[in-house]
């Protein structure tokens, strides 16, 4: 039975030692591993809680529905 759990126990001990000896690297790896998981898990949770996506920002300026008038008073002399 202990042969089955030995790799997990050794991995836990290794991670615990790294957390004490190199905490910056250890926690950087932990946060980096959580990122992709959150990208998959968070959007469905937000939709279940009632989040609605924002409207798209207009990509063009709306042209007025009238004839164009030439500008007056800005001619070069």
TrEMBL record:
Keywords: Membrane, Transmembrane, Transmembrane helix
Regions crossing the membrane: 24-42
InterPro entries per UniProt: Nuo9.5
Claim: Transmembrane helix is one of the keywords in the record: yes
Protein name: NADH-ubiquinone oxidoreductase 9.5 kDa subunit
Source organism of the structure: Psilocybe cyanescens
Organism phylogeny: Eukaryota, Fungi, Dikarya, Basidiomycota, Agaricomycotina
């Amino acid at each position: 039975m202990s042969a089955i759990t030995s790799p997990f126990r050794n991995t836990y001990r290794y991670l615990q030692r790294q957390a004490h000896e190199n905490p910056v690297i250890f926690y950087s790896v932990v946060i980096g591993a959580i990122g992709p998981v959150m990208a998959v898990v968070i959007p469905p949770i937000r939709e279940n809680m009632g989040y609605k996506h924002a409207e798209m920002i207009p990509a063009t300026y709306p042209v007025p529905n009238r004839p164009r008038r030439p500008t007056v008073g800005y001619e070069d002399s």
